Amino acid sequence: MARILVTGASGLLGTAVVERLSRDNDVFGLSRTMRLPGTCCLDLLDGAALETLNDEPWNALVHCAAFRSPDYCEENREASLRLNGEVPGQLAAMALARDARMIHISTDYVFDGAHPPYSEDDPTNPVNFYGEAKLEGELSVRRVNSNAVILRVPGLWGYPPSPVESPMLVDGIRAAYSETESFQDDVIVRYPTHTQDVADVIAFLLANDYVGTLHAGAHEATTRYRWAVAVTQALGRDASHIQRMQSDPERLATRPVNSHLATDRLAALGAPLPRGFSEWLPEVLPQFM
Fold this sequence. Notes:
Elements: E1 3-7, H1 12-21, E2 26-31, E3 39-41, H2 47-51, E4 60-63, H3 70-75, H4 77-97, E5 101-107, H5 129-144, E6 149-153, E7 156-157, H6 167-176, E8 182-185, E9 193-194, H7 195-206, E10 212-215, H8 224-234, E11 242-245, H9 264-268, H10 277-284
Parallel strand pairs: 1-2, 1-4, 2-3, 4-5, 5-6, 6-10, 7-9, 8-11
Helix pairs in contact: 1-7, 4-5, 6-8
């Protein structure tokens, strides 16, 4: 049985990864501020604390921890570059030293969104600092550990255990039950991907020998407006109060317009492919009705 180290274990993706991998493995989960059952608190930005991982027995690593908000990263560049850009390389070196499998979670935001869909070999060109820092994370992993897997994923959603929240799901439900008009962006194209599907891909990769960069994401396109309408209708509610915004709202960080990830390589491996949100919503939403 493998002992798998999962960073960001109390995050949206990390909770799904811990749950999935714990079915067949001994999982050692780390979180920075929130302790859930089976996780330990450790701040990856603390160099001395990070080094203590060398003393722990693990033979596989799934690195989910990151600052995920583009706007936060735009304002907190030093911390974002450290966690999203430099820490992945340090962990990759640790994994290589003990011959441990490593899966590093990256993002579709390493692309500019101008020419989708993007294959693993397409040129990167991030349009915000979050994407720049995550791209540096990929490069720092590659510089020290050519045996690692870099797994790029798009915007994630799911139904994590309390008190962890799925911002996209929460926003959709809030819009559905709003008693006033809800204005939603209908410009930025997204491909919401359920965290359980990504966790299944990770489990598949840990059981196989693939090395390199890989994309995992659903292919059902939406916008915040179309997402809010879909969630509202799936809840059996009238969506006429949800209004379309024809321009991208002003935010600190620019978003790529359409950073759709091609998953031909994932399919060729025989891995489980993420499902579109229309398949998932009927399973997730009944508890909110």
